Amino acid sequence: MFWSRQWSVPRLELWEKIMQQKKAKYSFLMMLCIVLLGIIGPWIAPHDPTKTYYEAFMQGPSKDFWLGTDAIGRDILSRMLYGTRVTLTVALLASVMTFVAGTLIGVTCAYLGGIVDNLIMRIMDIMLALPGIVLALAIVAVLGPSQENAMIAIGISSIPAFSILIRGAALSIKQSGYVEASRSIGSSNWWIITRQFIPNISNVLIVYTTMFIGSAILGTSALGFIGLGAQPPTPEWGTMLNEGKNYLREAWWLATFPGLAITAVVFTVYLLGDALRDIFDPKS
Amino acid sequence: MTNVLEVTGLTTTFSKNEKAFKVVDNLCLQVKRGESVGIVGESGCGKSVASLSMMRLLSKNGSIAGRIQLNGADLLRYSEKEMQKIRGKEIAMIFQEPMTSLNPVLTIGKQLSEGLEKHEGMNRVQSRQRVLELLTQVGISRANEIYHEYPHRLSGGMRQRVMIAMAIACHPKLLIADEPTTALDVTIQAQILDVMKKIQRELGMSLIMITHDLGVVAETCDRVLVMYAGQVIEAADVRTLLRSPKHPYTVGLIKSTPHNAKGQKRLHSIAGSVPTPDHYPKGCRFAPRCEKVMAVCLEQNPPLLDVDQQSECRCWLYRENRESTAVNG
Amino acid sequence: MKTPLLQVKNLNKKFLTRKGWFQPPSYVHAVHGVNVTVNAGETLGIVGESGCGKSTLGRCILRLIEPTDGEIVFEGQNIRSLQKADMQKLRRDMQMVFQNPFDTLNPKLTIQHILSEPLIAHGIPKRERAAMMEETMEIVGLNKNHLSRYAHEFSGGQRQRIGIARALMLRPKLIIADEPVSALDVSIQSQILNLLQDLQEQFSLTYLFISHDLSVVEHIADRVAVMYLGEVIELAKKEELFQRPMHPYTQSLLSAIPITDPDEKKERIILTGDLPSPSNPPQGCKFHPRCWACMDVCKTEAPPFTETDGRLVACHLYEK
User: Fold this and answer.
1) 3-state DSSP assignment of residue B227
2) Nearest residue, CB atoms, B238 vs list C213, C259, C262
3) Residue A8's closest chain C neighbor by CA?
4) Which one of A227, C121, C166, C295 is at 20 to 30 Å from C192 when CA atoms are compared?
5) pLDDT tens-digit profile of A45-73?
6) Shortest CA distance to C170 belongs to which of C208, C146, C205?
7) Torsional sign, CA C224, C226, C231, C234
8) A65-280 has which fold?
9) Coiled-coil region(s) at which residues (chain C) (predicted)?
10) β pairing state of C43-47 and C206-211
11) Complex ipTM > 0.90
12) Which of residues 14-43 of B touch C (CB under 8 A)?
């Protein structure tokens, strides 16, 4: 891959810088824990997330069920641990989609300019005119509700904002001498985009992608909440939040713990993004 | 004649990552009334930092040692507030890129009169009158129009003229010009140097000209200091320096100017490149690039030695000279 | 008489500048009817002040900027009519060295990556690349161990050597050098100028040497073209131009160079006024508002660029 070797040095520096800065260090470690939970969650979960315990409907937190059980007697902690993986997978894959498509669109537009740039950017403007969640809703409505489609919807709906940000960053690279030098050598456009542009906007890419992961998690949960994301009985935080909202008075634990989980994860991701921005852009 | 400025042992140290770099090392300099002194050197030799030190305009991680006496008063003893009164009024400075020193949202007239109203206590009418005078003095023919213009509407040469007008507004005794014509075209450079010389004559002002261009020095200066890697390596009057340079670096610098190589196929060149403050060699800092390097050069950094009572030169080649003068005197 | 390697015929470049969507478009005529010929093996210097269009001319010849009209004939072939792919191939023979060595090397790539770019772009097989890179590094005076480093680890002079190595990788016939030494210190500048001359001899290169510095051009060029506001106003052999400049602009340009010899006193011609804006050039001869020899005819009629007394100059003074 084109980034394998060239990026090795900046990556090392990045690691050192993250470890130097408190905010970056802790948010990064927290993020690591969350991802780890997503991976090993199913193994450490005390119960089967879909199994109904008939003797324990809507029980509060107890020794057997640490975070209580839901309306049909399933263990909330286990469901949440399983749900970490679902939410993270959807959010990460959606972000990867945004990252790849948005980077290519943004850089290509900046580099080529002219009619191509104008046309694509006007389409992006139109897409941007709709709030992201409305756009995602429309896409899911067309594709049908499912975990995969939620992912596609969230991915697509963040592309416009992402590509416009990347285009802005790439425009400054376009002015640089090495892009002109590359053209004078006779290199192909693809080469110029992958070798000259992308390594030099890698900082921006890392920061924006992190930020977009945060909003993708929110988006995943939101779609789950309105029943357009992962379908029951798959455990998913947004879906769990929705199931719990009807019983807020009788059983607060149903909605509270998934809600807290969403908040905590999104907060961590944004904190990390903010810290990364401080690292890359010491001026602001 | 009295010295307007007397700098002794000026040493500027920058600290970065808990390491200290001496960017200017033991600089001594006297400027007489009405005299122009040039400081020449390549990028990174410390000439700009030296000038900023004299103005006490360094960023926080730089510290200054030594003595900077302006008319007998040590500038390093002044508080920042007192320094602000000195800047502009006693010493003024112009920079390579005038745009960075001009406020883009104020008209030229406004910026120039502001200082006059504050420093000299003039009223609106007086200051306007004076600004127009100043603009005419620096050779701006359409002073009335320029008064109402914004900086970005002016060409580089015009901006530099405005900067000069701003610098001389309060009749400073000393003007420090840091590469004032480097960003300009030759024909414009000629105009600006002309204006600077004229104004210096008219106001009897002293001038420190900081430049990398020996040609500019030859045109404007009476005396020259050549700096290399933070130290003065040669000081002499301009004619002596250019006619009979002593230090191998100065010799190389003059010879490598294309203009001095008329008819030669190849240019003289100095091998290698200027060392950075964290990689200064032991001994003479020029030794690794020097053609006449001797054993002693690699061990000990030479002091500034007197050569024929005309120039001072930091080179072991002239050691004999000092010993003989020491015997005589 | 050698056949010219490059002929530029009546080249024009107009940049469109539109202040707003509803305003009529206005043009900056950056290159205006330029005719120059570059013979194989020679160095043609192009001098002029900032904004005179000399850099635009260089980029138009390489079609990095698409010229508005005119012909660029390289080895008998009009390259303006070439398709994009053919043009890409032709870039093997014409390369460029840029001014700012700090900006033209990608900071995120190693020197090896930077130098392999032209080889990859022109399909040199992988097994030959390493040897070619090492050889070229040595030719430009660098060590082959430097290949694994990044650009920021080098000084300005070394970076410019890398820039030259990159242009030299494919052994081109023509190198367009756009202010290759103006960002460098004097002692480094002479190293690079010497290197460029050595390379010219070794590889029988042809240079189009663009610079604002007359003394540098005087040293390296065989013939010199002087540009003012997009036009070539004088073109002559170096010796002729520097000993007997004909156009008043050339004369003032020469007299404005500061000289390091304190005893060499010379008549200074100090021009009044600034370079006019290229978007609104004066009528007639473009130089007339600043010219001390301005006549009535200069204000209305642009002088043709013609041969008088064996010299090419665009000035009414020399018309018969």
Assistant:
1) strand
2) C262
3) C108
4) C121
5) 888 888 888 887 878 888 888 888 888 88
6) C205
7) negative
8) MetI-like fold (1.10.3720)
9) none
10) parallel
11) no
12) 42-43
